[in-house]
Amino acid sequence: MGISILKQGGIVAFPTDTVYGLGACANIPQAVERVYRVKQRPPNMALPLLLAHTSQISEVAYLLPQIAWLLADNFLPGALTIVLYKSNSVSDIITAGGKTIAVRIPAHPIPVALAEGVGPIVGTSANLSGKPSPLTADEVYSQLGDKIDLVIDGGRCPGGRESTIIDVTGEVPVILREGAISREELEKVCGRIVFRQGG
Q1: Going by C-beta distance under 8 Å and a sequence separation of 6 or more, which residues neighbour residue 163?
Q2: What are the distances in angstroms from CA 85 to CA 16, 52, 99, 104?
Q3: Going by C-beta distance under 8 Å and a sequence separation of 6 or more, which residues neighbour residue 166?
Q4: Average pLDDT, stretch 160-176?
Q5: Whether 9 contacts 16, CB under 8 Å
Q6: pTM of the model
Q7: Are 140 and 76 in contact (CB under 8 A)?
Q8: Whole-number Å distance between alpha carbons of 156 and 49
Q9: For the chain, which domains are there?
């Protein structure tokens, strides 16, 4: 049901390994615009993409550095979001006009099944901007209510913390948000990392 709604341009909330996400087909601009409206998210804040497999990374990004594959091999599927240069196939609406795209493969069967069914989906936390990220379907309903087309109730999210975001477009990887995966864990894999607070 979730796949057919997404294919028709609908937006769907679903559990992930971190918090509940709000998704839309990445290749349907009107659906992506609706995600911004429903979340009351400023249009200059880019949206991340959720993928089903590492093979989809090269569909949405290019100039992939070796470190991106190293991080993907070690932490994906999982709570790591990797910022890369976007390919031309990714709409500027998703990236807020920027040249980069944030990608993640969740360690949860529901978003993976959705991304397998329709291709990459925008996947942001299913909350109003600035409000707490929801961990249950009830928390999604209380914030977004009837503004979305479907809430897939998968129980309480096991993670509870948002993903860590790391930008690998420069010479040295930069952590933009420290979340479920710590800086120490990342540095074991890829050496020195810069931490940028409030990125």
Answers
A1: 18, 79, 80, 81, 104, 177, 179, 180, 181
A2: 25, 19, 6, 14
A3: 71, 80, 81, 82, 83, 173, 174, 175, 176, 186, 193
A4: 91
A5: no
A6: 0.93
A7: no
A8: 22
A9: 2-195 (3.90.870.10)
